[in-house]
Amino acid sequence: MSKAYNFDWQIEVSARLLKGDYFDRWDEENGTLEQNCLFRVDSYGFYIYWQSEGRDGQVIELSQVSDIRPGKAPTDTKIASDLMANSLVYGRGNIDERTVTICSGIDFVQISHTNITGVDQATAKAWIEGLRKITHNHKANNICPTTILRKHWMKLSFMLNVNKKIPVRSISKTFASGKTEKRIFEILKELGLPSGKNDEIDPTDFTFEKFCDLYHKICPRTDISALFDELSGGKDYITTKQFVDWLNETQRDPRLNEILFPHYDTNSALRIIDRYELRANYRDRGHLSCDGLTRYLMSDENAPVFLDRLEVYHDMDQPLCHYLINSSHNTYLQGRQFGGRSSVEMYRQVLLAGCRCIELDCWDGKNDTEPIITHGKAMCSDINFKEVVFAIRDTAFVTSDYPVILSFENHCSKPQQFKLAKYCEEILGDYLLTKPLESHPLEPGVPLPSPNGLKRKILIKNKRLKPDVEKRHLELFLKGLDTEANYDNDLDSAANVEGEDGPAVFVDTVKLREEDDEAHPELNVDSNDDVNRRTLLGQLGIKFKEKTNLSREEEEALMNRYQYKGATTNIHPLLSSRVNYAQPIKFSGFAKAEERNIHYHMSSFSENVALQHLRQNPIEFVNYNKRQMSRIYPKGGRVDSSNYMPQIFWNAGCQMVSLNFQTPDLPMQLNLGKFEYNGNCG
């Protein structure tokens, strides 16, 4: 564009982090303890870097850091005793209070925990606060190629060997892709730098300019050179007029508004030349060299994304159903849908990534003690519901202040449902939206509140009792008359749930295969442990293999035995009363939904059913999404936790297009890119 845009992506790093502090770094997995490491952060906020006496320098890339947490003392007795001995010598305080844990990784599953213990509690607190301010800087993921080159150069400058020098071997590894070491050594020699395989370079000699020269010799931009030759007609410069013509005819997006984004003229072209042309004699004549053109094309002015849209730029005062919502499916799983491992950490990582709708599959715990979260009867491990709520409280509003929706798949008994409600109230506190806003009552025709109106609020999505039934049952419960005799039994409970009284409508009045239609098809037999798994697989004629992952044969056999057990309709009145703007109901057709005109009702569709609706009722589906929310989830056959392409459902206005965050495939990458815009607010 002809108007200059200042891409302000940096977050100021505190003076204390720039100067650095000494920490003891320890790792229980490999039993290592590295003492007296000087930890620092660079001025750009790219890296946490450190080096101790007699060891090579190390770095953690801040773009890969997901969380900074107060740490805890190690359970490894040797590491703990060494840290404690150090504490006694120097009179330091409790290890827990002095420890910081840095969580980092390139995906949501493989997370590394770097534990560092400082000299006192104040040091740990200063680093926790300082690092939290500069993490989750999504703008830094969109820096220009020139800044990325500087980032690579800085990493080499921090990873010094024990002699405080840059090993030539490290440089060759940086450029190893598709290039032979011999060629890299030759170019280093041409630049007057040490070039032997075992040589080392003084950091003061390896300047950023030298690194750029090395880069352009190893990875020449032949595409830019060809463009320059075409524009210059064989000369060693481009004139201002040639540059203006090319900017307007080729480089400028013709779809841009000519008033907001006027065409380039001589002045705007000269501004670019003055900024990117380093030769003074060329600048004075208004000429641009090939190097100047390269610097311009590798700058922020030619970013492949709309840099100004990385801030919150949408109007956030429209009804909630007017926005796409970053949504997760089976949030707790780290791997496959069968036999997968459940993890509390996944909730932390997904929320810290900006997700605003997470799924909790709630079941009664063993011996009816505590409610758990698991992919019921699919041989997945389980996690404690209460621990998940604590994780949600700690991470819900770190990345974004906009509302979080807890999508409950509720299979719990009444007593366990009471615990679900109480834990949410007690742990989430004021975050939990327990009743509708006065400005947006739960009445037909009243639109949903806006994201701004629900800032820092957590909503529960769960089936709700009809108002009169809920009121009667809640009064009985509060009077202490909460017995099963006071409630309708499970067979009749569906009639008491809002939106459950009536037949479900399927496309073409033909029900799809159950494994494609349901979000959570569950096996009727309990297969959570090896004993029941042996029995189940024996019935299927499959040899049981102890403590191994499910084979493809086992998965296919289990899928054939799949029978869905839907979420309970026997709802505890206290849990029911905490549901407001996200009330799931059985889908009874677009015409019925329009007739009801209840904006806080929503329905969920498997990807296959949603596609059928898009083929047969596209206009009705879009109009439905204008009024109320819909949620799309992967078909049951995706046992490998693969994802579907979300774009087609976004195009129809489906708000919650839920994906398996544990799988970094193309659909998930598209989802991450989509929600990086608008301030990564979810």
From TrEMBL:
Its EC number is 3.1.4.11. It catalyses: a 1,2-diacyl-sn-glycero-3-phospho-(1D-myo-inositol-4,5-bisphosphate) + H2O = 1D-myo-inositol 1,4,5-trisphosphate + a 1,2-diacyl-sn-glycerol + H(+). Residues 575-682 form the PI-PLC Y-box domain. It is an enzyme of class 3 (hydrolase). It holds the Pfam family PI-PLC-Y. SMART domains: PLCXc (SM00148), PLCYc (SM00149). Keywords: Hydrolase, Lipid degradation, Lipid metabolism, Transducer. GO terms for molecular function: phosphatidylinositol-4,5-bisphosphate phospholipase C activity. The keyword Ribonucleoprotein does not apply. The keyword Hydrolase applies. This is Phosphoinositide phospholipase C. It comes from Adineta ricciae (Rotifer).
